[in-house]
TrEMBL record:
UniProt cross-references to InterPro entries, sorted A to Z: Pept_HybD-like_dom_sf, Peptidase_A25
Enzyme Commission designation: 3.4.24.78
Keywords, ordered alphabetically: Hydrolase, Protease, Zymogen
GO molecular function: metalloendopeptidase activity
The species this protein was found in: Carboxydocella sporoproducens DSM 16521
Protein name: Germination protease
Description of how the protein assembles with itself and partners: Homotetramer.
């Protein structure tokens, strides 16, 4: 079954712009009009910058015009602190490329997600660890090191816990605090199991919380909040239909290597494969997502990298070797 058909049949949205680009690029077998891509090799990471340039690119990609930076770093899973520090530096450099702020600009960090559900707890975990300083500028300026910026943070929870739309809470805080920029951190849904906990996306287009799992929530962007919004996300779950489709694809690849099995392969049709996946996922109405067994440790490692990178990017006065010592 072709990947675009699988995604469309199960109404799976691709949170990662890189995956959306790969899916469309593989379908049309040519460069995508209105979209530019650049790839950079960094220590322990590959950085891919996908830029949606215009309305045509937006229509094809299904994402608003803007810059989407993807950091692919499989070594995140290794738990090596030195490697994680290198990845955090790469992350910080890419975040700074999206920000255009003066040294005294106030930044609001928002940790989206449900702290009671581990795969969705990335945002709150980052907020628990990142360095916040806005209150010190008001009450204890003598405690500040040079080169620190006013940073405040909150984890507003989810609609099911608070009974309030997340966007409503954030708009209220923005109206009161009046930050120069908002940075949202959220868990994403991957279009491939291999990207869980190994990929970081940054985007200057804001975010629609829960869109990867088909949840319709109010968007958080410059249009709704009135200030620039940077979105940071790491995939923590993957749709079961995607995993099943990948497994079938691997099996069919083996069929093609055998003359006997190749005849079976030729007689298969996408509708048959689709029906098989439908039957397997029927108890969950096709709406089943998977997460690794060690997701708690993985969330902690990812939160540490993001929080350390945020410290580096937002507080230029902190020496790189000390960025992680400020984590709560």
């Amino acid at each position: 079954m072709a990947r675009p058909e699988l995604l469309k049949h199960f109404s799976i949205n691709l949170d990662l712009a890189l995956e959306a680009h790969e899916a469309i690029r593989g379908q049309v077998q040519r460069e995508i009009p209105g979209v530019a891509m650049e790839k950079l090799q960094k220590p322990h990471a590959t950085v891919t910058i996908v830029t949606v340039l215009d309305a045509q690119g937006e229509q094809l990609m299904g994402k608003p015009p803007g810059k989407y930076i993807t950091i692919e770093a499989p070594d995140i899973r290794e738990g090596n602190r030195l490697v994680q520090a290198e990845i955090a530096r790469v992350f910080a450099d890419q975040l700074k490329s999206l920000l255009s702020l003066g040294p005294d600009a106030t930044v609001l960090l928002v940790g989206l997600g449900n702290w009671k559900a581990t795969p969705d707890a990335l945002g709150p975990r980052v907020i628990n660890s990142v360095l916040v300083t806005r209150h010190l500028f008001h009450y204890a300026p003598q405690e500040l090191a040079g080169g620190m910026r006013p940073v405040c943070a909150l984890a507003p929870g989810v609609l099911g816990i608070t009974g309030i739309e997340t966007a409503e809470i954030i708009r209220g805080v923005v109206d009161r605090v009046k930050p120069n920029a908002v940075i949202c951190i959220d868990a994403l849904a991957a279009g491939s199991a291999m990207r869980i906990g190994t990929t970081i996306q940054l985007a200057d287009t804001g975010i629609s919380p829960g869109s990867g799992l088909g949840h319709k929530r109010q968007g958080l962007n410059q249009e709704t909040l009135g200030v620039p919004v940077i979105a940071i996300g790491i995939p923590t779950v993957c749709h079961a239909a995607v995993i099943a489709g990948e497994a079938i694809d691997k099996l069919l690849e083996q069929f093609q290597t055998s003359p006997t099995l190749y005849q079976i392969y030729k007689n298969l049709n996408p509708a048959m494969i689709q029906q098989i996946i439908n039957e397997v996922l029927h108890p969950f109405a096709g709406n089943l997502v998977m997460t690794p067994k060690d997701i708690d440790d993985l969330i902690s490692e990812c939160a540490r990298i993001v929080a350390g990178g945020l410290n580096l990017a937002l507080h230029p006065g902190i020496p790189e070797q000390e960025a992680f010592s400020y984590l709560h």
